Amino acid sequence: MSIQWPLVFFTLFIGLGCGTFVSSVILTEWYGKAKQIRTISSILAIVSIGVGGMSSTLHLGHPERMFGALGHPTSGIFMESTMSFLLGLTIVVYLLALRRNASDATCKMIGTIGAVLAVGLAFVNGDAYVMASIPAWNTWILPVLYVASAAVMGCFSIDMLLVRSEDADITTLAKVNRVTLIALIIQAILIVAYLVHIAIAPYPDVTRSVTRVLAGNLAILFWGGMVLLGLVVPTALVTKFSRKNNAPLTSVKFGLVSVLVAGVAFRALMFLMGSSIKQFF
Amino acid sequence: MSQRTMVVDLDRCIGCKSCEVACKQENGVILGCTWNKVLTVGPTGTYPNIQMYYLPTMCQECKEAQCVKVCPTGASYKGEDGTVLIDKEKCIGCRYCMMACPYGVRTFNEETKVVEKCTLCTQLQAVGEQPACVKNCPAGCRFVGDIDDPNSEVAKVIQKAGNENVHVLPDVGNRPSARYILHSKTATWKE
Known about the structure:
- The structure holds two protein chains of two kinds.
- Chain A contains nine helices and no strands.
- Chain A is an all-alpha fold.
- In chain A, α1 (about 5-30) packs across α9 and α5 (about 140-165) runs antiparallel to α6 (about 170-200).
- Chain B is of the alpha+beta class.
- Chain B has a domain at about 5-60 and about 120-180: Alpha-Beta Plaits (2-Layer Sandwich).
- Chain B is built from six helices and ten strands; from the N terminus they run βαββαββαββααβαββ.
- In chain B, strands 8-1-10-9 form a four-stranded mixed beta sheet.
- Chain B is globular.
- Chain B starts with a strand and ends in a 10-residue tail after the last strand.
- Classes of the chains: A mainly alpha, B alpha+beta.
- The interface of A and B includes residues 59, 63, 131, 274 and 280 of A.
């Protein structure tokens, strides 16, 4: 299958938005740290989800008929659209609550509802591709990898917002760095698990083989994109931040761009391996 | 419960591709799109034991059609006779059905921005005619009918061929209803 760019950017920006919002809610509402980034992180999240949503419509031949999806609420596309809308709505309500100085309990409740929706949306993004017709996609690892990818992007996004704010304290930054490192380790484990799945998936074919990923024409996407930019560079940066007890804004921005490019590489690779059991036409 | 489908006798197929041309002509399938395609399987083996056969491919009219399940608008649906059809007025062109099809036998029309596929020429069957590929096959290798009706032509052809010579494409829970007849004296069926 060729790379479906609108869908690549749809899931990338949705992942960034979900990851940013969840990271922000956990840090600010659950742990009560860095409350100054609540508004800016929520705006970043909703803009990202909006951009993702608009990107998805570029994939459709007839987006004007989209309301026909209301008649088939179990489809993956309906679930993605509905959850994106509900998450966007929750973030708007959350921003209104912040604007009107609502109580901490209220903000925490709304934020938590949004965070649950965000995790669900990141999962559904990947789950929509799980189908028996495409062996390389037919695994629960894929939606979990989408969640992990969103988590890593969210951590770097929050890290950037923290470093940007003048009153960020070192302990909070250190905590975010630790969580980012854990998210990167989980992502690395999931990538290995995904490779194992590809190796043992039924109906083996050269188009979706591990050889093609590791040493074939997908190697540049895998080693350069997913491994170097998605794991090595961000891990090196986070380790450096932890050791030196600081995080220069330029380095954090570089880290965010790095994981975003890695996110594109992962999604592009997924589409390029998405061959059907039999691809007759 | 009826299930209209196609049975292809590969022992008879000569690979002339008349079915491809007839399909394009009858249904106005645009350049770059395909509803039905004849593939060459092989040659395999070593001389002098070489094998090869032609495999006409099209929608397999699955009983549990995944394309129907994933369609967000219900544009892909199963007709009363079991044929998988597309309501082009409802199709949003998301191509999700193309991903869900295990055989890649759906095609995206770049002009109308909707997905298309073999309809078993419902427009011809409605006036009592056979699909274009069936009536234009010079070898008479294509049959269409209700596979669940033991008195139908397709059921009789399958029964005559014998179970060991009747083949089906890989089933991942979609239960394809199309059948291929290939006797081992012609060639060995390749999964």
